[in-house]
Design a protein that fits this description.
Largest sheet of chain A: 6 strands, parallel
Shape of chain A: elongated
Oligomer: homodimer
Largest interface: A-B, 46 and 46 residues
Radius of gyration of chain A: 25 Å
CATH superfamily of the largest domain in chain A: Response regulator
Strand content of chain A: 5-15%
Order of helices and strands of chain A: HHHHEHEHEHEEHEHEHEHEHEHEE
CATH topology of the largest domain in chain A: Rossmann fold
Structural class of chain A: alpha/beta
Helix content of chain A: 40-55%
Chain lengths: 338, 338
DNA sequence: GTCAAAAGTACCAGCGCTGTCAAATGAAAA
DNA sequence: TTTTCATTTGACAGCGCTGGTACTTTTGAC
């Protein structure tokens, strides 16, 4: 039978209430006493019973991570999860992972979830971070939440990185290599990742004085198949692009596949770059030039911020995580012939 | 404020205890009454408070998934997680994910984890499934657990699939294409996945009457880099193999990269196959021939079995999940010239 | 040395549920 | 019909902790 708070109190010669104060970080305990109590806790290997804590304190010590359908098996989400779990480990909080599809009955579903788990805070991964109805419901339920890469300014706490600038950087890199006709396979409309990355693409073209050609932008949906389809459309043009910027790595892989099917050399005949730097970027050959999105870091930050906001309800914070270009072998100067 | 069991009892005109019986699936409630209570539960949108339940019932309704260092960002684990979460959703149980490194202080670490979360059951992913010390400690703590792909017969509940046969199948496929000199980049020693896949490789050779040549087997560690290194060693031979079987997909990608660096065509000059069918197998070009390991399904099964074993403590069950070959474009008949 | 503020104690209710065990019920037996 | 006994239901304590109130002790400023 594990030790109880009572045992610790007896061991340290104090009241249970004082032990409780120490456990909960209340500042009204003198250092000397606190030290003694902490020693007793360690000696007895005491760990508070989370259920009793939750029940009495009306808190669950749970942070829920809401992400979209995992069927995609998206490594983006995996990385987020890793970050969230890491961050939780350093706190008394625990993570609940919840794949969540925002269908018609969103409100009922979220209510059910909240009723069942009673999380103290939520973290919304894209695209939920942009779902106004969802955010509204959470506000009504007076739940704290953090969003990741939210488009809307509604969210009090948001962790993002400058996707627009990152996209501009990577397209700028293609331009600096000498590319002038650059295709773009865009993401799913409605996702922030669609708009920002497209804007960045346009920014880079503008900066280089290259006219924007709408027909060089093909809509995609972040899947490998849509990347292939996008590449097919672009490469079937009379003047195909010499480089393609895909709005994520999976689509970039699709582009590379289409190139492969046609016997085009990457990067010799076609430069390809992606976005996100998911693990696959390292595994494909040639290695994929992409932008490293600090998913783990963002997961961590989301947890930290949202927990802080429990203590400071007025907290507003829009954090921008740093990103990095990862220049690998899938991009090079265009072939001489043109 | 959400409904409490008391509210349901009042609404249905019974005692709280009877409601509790219905909630916990006790069979000693008359059908008529049970129906009435279930109706009340639905009307009031009642969901039991998990903390109160745990506290009173001395159960946590938690299933812990112990997996190895997630730094690898392994999609194997991701798939397992998805399966485990799915399975939990249909039960009152929740999953706790716990990346866990089995270092020296394993016992202390596992004790700490158990003290903190008090899971009712554990699921051990490889390589923990083979860690005798860990299993022993769990036995001492009288915790129920299921292992996934455990080598040892110690585990009462294990979910696996016939890796040896699967490996033999895929190497058999290479042989049937006409390959005779087939290299193998093996996994990390100690992992079941190392021994089984190597045995399968040998089985297939034996069956085809091809002599086993130890020098064609290069040790690896399941990483991309070790796959590259293994391929390097194999391709530097005076008579390089015409096909390489890597013990997992990441290493197969490393093999493909090494081929790419040398200007070898896959599958024209070198056939490559992997194992696991992680998402990357679909993303690389050419698509990777591999064995589909039903990770999700195995995660689900592990949860189901281990929960069943809570009700039936004597339960022993070694389940074999079905696997499938995924023949893609990375394998073909060897070049004519030899 | 005085006194207010801070730090700590003692005590108890109660969070929402389940386990124990006794009471009520109902069907079969007498 | 009454008795018997298994089945079904209920009353109540208590799981381990925190919040609150009321009170005592310590601290440090003057």
């Amino acid at each position: 039978m594990p030790a109880r708070i009572e045992d610790v109190a007896a061991h340290a010669g104090v009241s249970t209430k004082t032990v409780s104060r120490v456990l909960n970080g209340h500042t009204t305990v003198r250092v000397k006493l606190r030290t003694r109590i902490e020693a007793s806790i360690r000696t007895l290997n005491y760990v508070p019973n989370p259920s009793a804590r939750s029940l009495a304190g009306n808190r669950s010590y749970l942070v829920a991570l809401l992400y979209d359908n995992p069927a995609a098996g998206s490594s983006y989400v995996m990385e987020l999860i890793v970050g969230v779990l890491q961050a939780c480990k350093e706190t008394p909080y625990n993570a609940v992972l919840h794949p969540f599809e925002a269908t018609e009955d969103l409100v009922a579903k979220i209510d059910g979830f909240v009723a069942q788990h009673r999380p103290d805070a939520l973290i919304l991964a894209p695209p939920h971070a942009n779902n106004a109805k969802l955010l509204q419901r959470l506000d009504e339920l007076e739940l704290r939440y953090a969003t990741i890469s939210s488009k809307s300014r509604q969210s009090p706490i948001d962790i993002s990185f400058d996707e627009r600038k990152a996209a501009a950087d990577i397209v700028g890199h293609l331009i600096s290599l000498g590319h002038r006709r650059i295709g773009h396979v865009a993401g799913l409309k409605g996702h922030g990742a669609h708009a920002w990355r497209l804007s960045g693409y346009r920014d880079a073209l503008r900066k280089a004085g290259i006219a924007y050609d709408e027909s060089l932008v093909i809509p995609g949906d972040f899947t490998f198949a849509s990347g292939m389809a996008g590449a097919k459309a672009l490469l079937n043009r009379r003047h195909p692009p010499t480089a393609i910027f895909a709005a994520n790595d999976d689509m970039a892989c699709g582009v590379m596949r289409e190139g492969y099917e046609r016997g085009l050399a990457v990067p010799g005949d076609l430069s390809v770059c992606g976005f996100d730097d998911t693990p696959v970027a390292l595994l494909v050959s040639p290695g994929l030039t992409t932008v490293h999105q600090p998913c783990r870091e963002m997961g961590r930050m989301a947890v930290e911020s949202v927990l802080q906001s429990i203590r400071e309800p007025d907290l507003q914070r829009h954090t921008r995580a740093p990103y990095e270009m990862r220049l690998r072998a899938s991009t090079a100067a265009p072939a001489k012939k043109r």
